[in-house]
Structures are given as structure tokens and as C-alpha cells.
# Entry
Amino acid sequence: MTENTVCCCREHIKLSNDAAREGMVLLKNENGTLPLSRGEKVALFGKGSIAYVKGGGGSGDVYTKYVRSIYDGFMIMEAEGRVCVNERVSEFYRDFIIDEVVRGRDVMGKNAVPEPRTSPVFAKNAANESDTAIITISRYSLEGDDRKAEGDYYLSENEKLLISSVCDSFKKVILVLNVGSVVDTSYFINDDRISAVLLAWQGGTEGGLAVAEALCGVYSPSGKLVDTFAKSLEDYPCTAHFYDSEDYVEYSEDIYVGYRYFETIPGAKEKVNYPFGFGLSYTKFNIFNVKAERDGDEIKVYAMVKNVGNFEGKEVVQLYFSAPQGVLGKPARELIAFYKTKKLNPGELEKICLTFKISNMASFDDLGKIEKSAYLLEKGEYNFYIGNNVRDAEKIDFSYNLEENVIVERLTSRCAPCNLKERMLANGEFEALPQKEIERGYIHAKNSTAKAPDRLMPFNEVKSDADIDSFIAQYTGEELCDFMGGSDNVGVTNTLCFSEQKRLGVPPVTTADGPAGLRLDYWHGIETTAWPCATQLACSWNTDILKEVGAAAARELRENGIFVWLAPALNIHRTPLCGRNFEYFSEDPLISGKMAAAEVEGIQSEGISACIKHFACNNHETNRLQGDSRVSERALREIYLKGFEICVKEASPISLMSSYNILNGIHASESYDLLTGILRGEWGFDGMITTDWGIKNNPVHEVLAGNDMKMHKGYPDDLLAALNSGELTRGDLEACARRILKAYRKLV
Ligand code: BGC
# Structure
């Protein structure tokens, strides 16, 4: 066993707990049910109270030191004299879990045993001994697999029975949702018997403790939803066609994803149970004295936030805008800025200022209704709304008016759809889209004219980026082809390394997953901190904590000799059914981009490379290697790429992972438009690009597209054949090598 000083150290465990606390969302709290009163007798129902799900599976999993279950958390609360836990009920669930584990059954993973069937007498007996029932409902999902409706988004039969028998016996019933993504909320929103609901997510190593602490009032929940919780799964516009084909997904709801759909499309407002940005607290806040002004190319909104309740807590102030409907059509509300206050004591005030660039309100005109391929601000009135969720945000007494349309940025048409027939408009109708031919648009790079040094120059003598070209001149053609693919594991790495070049002294660059924590193989015996799932982190609306989590995770990598963390992942929550939603932040691109940027900043402040992923439109898992995401250029730029754009421009990640899927007819890793045109050309990304792992796409096309590294291994023979036939130039390979080596210079 390695002696660790950083992994799972006390500070990191505490930070994991703090992050879990920040992202807890209180959905319901009738008649002051919560926090629990001192000494309250509680009975913990549900197998998830013992077999707590700390996060999802696959690369988004972590071998952590221990996982504090909700029961464990309550034991700590009991020791502090805060509550009294019904042992008989917990013993039943513990025995059930132990029995199933002994039988070799899965208790909380993909094939988890169902909730045990309990008789109404079980709940009745418990009610004779306890005041309050706390029922935990758990969910688990993982990459490569999408979620299902029954028993996943919706309750299973046994869960329904459990809830109804507990509600029949107890006067006070609290629900804890230990889930990684959006689930059904309709069965409790109007059911008076369930008086409080905590959306606890999957909270990592200390998640169960953070739950118990929230319920006992050690702190007030301050998380806010980063997704819309609709009345039914069918209410999400993409559900109807989600399983239409394994070969493609049509993103025909266009930019109307999440709250942009529910707040805009006629009749959709009524379909919402809990709006985007929603979250209760044990206290109340007033947002007042709101003033706004234009300051050059920015708008500034000032406000005061006051804790007017009796409990300390934090508030998230959210600013939305509405643009004139104009010619292009716009969502009724779009998040433009947000701020989480410090912890405010009862009566305490904080003065805040929200700032954003006017140009960030622009829309992308993909069809040339005003000017083709330009970001523009349409003429008319722009209004602003401030509050603590999208629905309740109040219009402020300030507007921004434009007499004429303003072109903000002229760009080029890229990644245009070749097979998306129509898309939704703001009035809920659909417009036909023109179809393009698939164009790869590869352009060869020029061969470098740099001369190799007279004597062999090893990599550690490359003192500046200017030396890189003469360093590369030393590579033979074969060596270059070899350099474009991953190399063997080193040390404790289990995701293989970015390539080495032994003769020239280029070391292999170690990588590890992400994003739940540093993921090492369990047999190395190194336990690492499990952070709350990405959605929970995003629900914190607290970029400072994301930065801290990033830095702490990076320190765990450094301690283990690993230089690249395959995180954060920031695909958009297009549908509740995506099996990887727990690894991703939000349905909203601003939240996704800001959270990712903060985390990347933290990671890279420790000299470790973040590798943001999966670029782009990997929003479902079914047939993820060959499924075609068919999306308009406007939705691509305003929704699916926007978070990546924010992150790249604000935090300069050293590496980025292209996604498995096809995007409008071309695999993301082979898309020149996406990787070279948009990412490098428009946004100025100067890091290296790796494929996702084990991908079999055409390696020659990948080099031509600007995808530098093929993981987990390359296809050097194919590249060499292409070099010899002239399909690839030496310059094409040198361009990739240059970007890889520039990235390495920042790390090793
Ligand atoms: C996942 C990536 C992950 C990689 C390496 C792939 O299956 O999609 O997110 O980083 O494996 O484990």
C-alpha cells in the first residue's frame, strides 16, 4: 500500500463534503418539516439509505477510501444528540444488503437488485417507534448505456409500494433523492403526505453525511437546479424521438433545450414541476434595490441581497435576459449572469454586481435571414429579469434598445446539417432546413522548413516553443506516425499514456479519468477522493468551489505521477435519458461553461492538464461510436458548443477530447470544421486534441482534421502508408506533433 499524503487527506475529504453541501437542492419543505427538531426520532427507509450511490459508473467512477452512507451520516448526527435513529428499520436494510452482497448480487450498480418488498406492518411498527420517516430513492447509471423510463426516471413498483405504505403509517415523511440526473417529481409535488424532499444527487465520499447534516439543519441547502424538472418524461421535447433509431438522433427542438423550451414554447410552461434555477432554503432572502446601467460594451446590474429569515444561508442571484423575437426567434429567457452570495446571517446584507458583455446576447444566424453565419443582435428591446429561479425572476426597470441590427461577429458556415429536415421555432412550429452535402474540407499543412540541430537534441533541451520545429525536424516519418497514438501504461496509470518518443527523450504523458475524482485501478491500493457528481457541483452555482475541487483533484494526480486529468466533461443535458448526465453539468451552456472554466483553472493551477470532453454532441450513449447527432448550426453554436467556447476562452485547457459520435455526417474526431475551423480557428484553442478511447475512425482523416492524438493507441502503419502515398504530407503530421509537444512542455 502506497503511503499517501494527499489522496483522501482530511482537507480533501472535507472539501468533498463542502462541495456536496453546496449542491444540495431542497425541492419541498411544507410547514417547516425541515430542519428536523433536536432529538427527533427518525426511521431510514430504502436500500439507498445503506447502499448509498456516491456517483455513477465507468470512467466517471472512483475507488475511494470509504463512502459515508446516509445511515452513517445519521449515526454521526445521533452521536451529536441531534436525532435518534430507528435501528430496527436500518438493520432490516443492512441485513438485506449484506445478504445480497454475499450472494454476489449487485446492490447499487447497473443491475442492482430492486428495492426489497416490505409489508405495511413493517412501516406501521416503525411508526410506533419513530416520528419521522426518511425514504431514500437511489439511481445509478453509467457510460455506454442510456437510462430507461420505468424504474429509472420513474419509480419502480416496489418503490411505489414502499412510499405508499410509509405514507399510510407516518405523519411526517421526507424523501431523499440520491440520483445522478433528472427523475420524476410528479408523485410528490402535490402529495401532502410527503412534506419535504431533498434532491441530494450523488455526493461522493461524504455524500451521506452531507445529506444527514442538511436534514438536521447543520447548514441550510443552497443548491439550485441546473435542469428543468418537468411533469413527465414525455414533456421533454426530445423524449418522443429518443429511441427512434440507433443510427442517429435529430436535434429538431433546436435551441429550445431545457428551460429555453419550457419558458418559450406555447403551452410548455404548464408542464414544469420545478423550474430551472429553483431551490429552497431554511431561510428567506430579499433581492432589492436593483439598478442597472450600460458601461461601454457591458451591462452592470447592482442589487442588495438580504437574509430576512431566521437561519443562516446563501442565495443564488440569477440574471436572465429576453431578446426581441425579431426575425430569428429567441428563447423567452436566457441566463446571462449569476452570483452566489457568501453565507449570510439572519438580517445580514450583501451588495452584489452582475456584469456581462452585451455581445453575449447575440444569436447565430445560420440560414442568413439577416446575415449568414454571423452572430448578431437584432434590433428592438432587450429586457432583464432578476431572481432566484427562471420562473420567478422579476423584470427590472432597465432595458437595452437597439434601433438597428448589430453584427457582432462574422464567421463561416461550419458543421452544417446534411440530414436534419426541420427545426423548432419559438412559436412551437417547425421550419424546414436546407440539406448540405457532407464536406470534409481538409487542407494540408505546409512542411516545416526548420533544420534539425547538428547533434541530437533531446526533448529536455527544448527551451522554448520556438525550438520545437527544429526538434521535430529530427523525427523520421515513421517516428512521426508512431507519435500520433497512445503508449503503454506507466506507474499506476490505467488509461494509457499520450505517446512517448524514446530516441528523442520525449516521455510518455500519463493520463487518468475523471471527472468524479482521480480514477485508479483498485488493485493499486490507492484510494482517492470521490467528488460529488458534476451535476451536483453545478447545482452549487459556486465557481469558487469548482476551482477548489479542480485543484484538489489535480494534487491527487500529481502525487501519483499523472499529468492529464480526463475531466471535466461538459456535454449538455439534452434529455434526462442520457446515461452520462451525472458526469455533465447542466442543460444550460452558460452554467456548463462557467463551471468547467472554474474547474479547469483549478486543475491547471497545480501544473496538471485538464482534458475537457466530449467535444461535441455526445448527448446520448446508445450506439455512441456510430450515432449521428443531427443538429443545426445555430443550436450547435448557441447550445452545444457554447460551454466549450466559454471554457476554452476563459481557462485555456491544455488538452481536449473529441467525442465518439458522428456530428452531421462526420465523426467528431475527423471533423476539420469542428476541430480546426471552430475550436482552433475561431476560439483560438492552442492545446492538443485527443480522440476518445478505443475509437476506430479513419486515422488519416483525424490527422487532417487536426485531431492530434489517437487513444488508446494509434494506427502508425495506416499513417505511414498515407504519408508514402501523398494522402498525408509530413507537414500534416508535424502540425499535430507541434501541438502535442507544446502541451507536453507545460507538463513534464
Ligand atoms: C470515455 C471517456 C474516458 C475514456 C478513458 C471512454 O470510454 O468516454 O470519458 O475518459 O474512456 O477511460
Notes: The CA atoms of residues 75 and 85 lie 7 Å apart.
